[in-house]
């Protein structure tokens, strides 16, 4: 029965320590009136991400955060999938730069990507976000939402907003990179924005 699945949700732990993700998801989940808390603020360490798909890693992170916090959990596994690279770096996006001798970080990731694509003509790519929410560590029915923003890798960074690959993710429909768009516009059309919109609807229908 639907009523058996209802839970009292006022706080959800975010299975990430990325402040950029926290800020974006807080804004996107605001309509639910639920407080989103970073796992680090609850002394929860990061989960291992041994899988090769976004959904498996997001589910592992969500279950880990729920287990160690006692709260419902939301996890986001996101990455860049470049057509010319067969969909890579995918789940390895956060560590992309380390493959080429650079330290981990957004700026180095962008630098490494532009170097690797210097002579690549096919610039098509997609930013993918998979959100998974669980009521408890053993939740047999996780909520899963997937967003995908398709664009092209620019030849050089542009824009001051956002994080990650936003400065080189050129969106033809806007004629700008994600980093050049006002945050509210980006959030409405980004991979994470699409996934969050679906997740808000799922939480409202299934949990509240």
From TrEMBL:
<dbReference type="GO" id="GO:0005829">
    <property type="term" value="C:cytosol"/>
</dbReference>
<dbReference type="GO" id="GO:0036220">
    <property type="term" value="F:ITP diphosphatase activity"/>
</dbReference>
<dbReference type="GO" id="GO:0009117">
    <property type="term" value="P:nucleotide metabolic process"/>
</dbReference>
<dbReference type="GO" id="GO:0046872">
    <property type="term" value="F:metal ion binding"/>
</dbReference>
<keyword id="KW-0479">Metal-binding</keyword>
<feature type="binding site">
    <location>
        <position position="77"/>
    </location>
    <ligand>
        <name>Mg(2+)</name>
    </ligand>
</feature>
<keyword id="KW-0547">Nucleotide-binding</keyword>
<keyword id="KW-0460">Magnesium</keyword>
<dbReference type="InterPro" id="IPR020922">
    <property type="entry name" value="dITP/XTP_pyrophosphatase"/>
</dbReference>
<comment type="similarity">
    <text>Belongs to the HAM1 NTPase family.</text>
</comment>
<feature type="binding site">
    <location>
        <position position="48"/>
    </location>
    <ligand>
        <name>Mg(2+)</name>
    </ligand>
</feature>
<comment type="subunit">
    <text>Homodimer.</text>
</comment>
<feature type="binding site">
    <location>
        <position position="186"/>
    </location>
    <ligand>
        <name>substrate</name>
    </ligand>
</feature>
<dbReference type="InterPro" id="IPR029001">
    <property type="entry name" value="ITPase-like_fam"/>
</dbReference>
<keyword id="KW-0546">Nucleotide metabolism</keyword>
<dbReference type="GO" id="GO:0036222">
    <property type="term" value="F:XTP diphosphatase activity"/>
</dbReference>
<dbReference type="GO" id="GO:0035870">
    <property type="term" value="F:dITP diphosphatase activity"/>
</dbReference>
<feature type="active site" description="Proton acceptor">
    <location>
        <position position="77"/>
    </location>
</feature>
<feature type="binding site">
    <location>
        <position position="78"/>
    </location>
    <ligand>
        <name>substrate</name>
    </ligand>
</feature>
<dbReference type="Pfam" id="PF01725">
    <property type="entry name" value="Ham1p_like"/>
</dbReference>
<dbReference type="GO" id="GO:0017111">
    <property type="term" value="F:ribonucleoside triphosphate phosphatase activity"/>
</dbReference>
<keyword id="KW-0378">Hydrolase</keyword>
<feature type="binding site">
    <location>
        <begin position="191"/>
        <end position="192"/>
    </location>
    <ligand>
        <name>substrate</name>
    </ligand>
</feature>
<feature type="binding site">
    <location>
        <begin position="16"/>
        <end position="21"/>
    </location>
    <ligand>
        <name>substrate</name>
    </ligand>
</feature>
<dbReference type="InterPro" id="IPR002637">
    <property type="entry name" value="RdgB/HAM1"/>
</dbReference>
<comment type="function">
    <text>Pyrophosphatase that catalyzes the hydrolysis of nucleoside triphosphates to their monophosphate derivatives, with a high preference for the non-canonical purine nucleotides XTP (xanthosine triphosphate), dITP (deoxyinosine triphosphate) and ITP. Seems to function as a house-cleaning enzyme that removes non-canonical purine nucleotides from the nucleotide pool, thus preventing their incorporation into DNA/RNA and avoiding chromosomal lesions.</text>
</comment>
<dbReference type="GO" id="GO:0000166">
    <property type="term" value="F:nucleotide binding"/>
</dbReference>
<feature type="binding site">
    <location>
        <begin position="163"/>
        <end position="166"/>
    </location>
    <ligand>
        <name>substrate</name>
    </ligand>
</feature>
<protein>
    <recommendedName>
        <fullName>dITP/XTP pyrophosphatase</fullName>
        <ecNumber>3.6.1.66</ecNumber>
    </recommendedName>
</protein>
<dbReference type="GO" id="GO:0009146">
    <property type="term" value="P:purine nucleoside triphosphate catabolic process"/>
</dbReference>
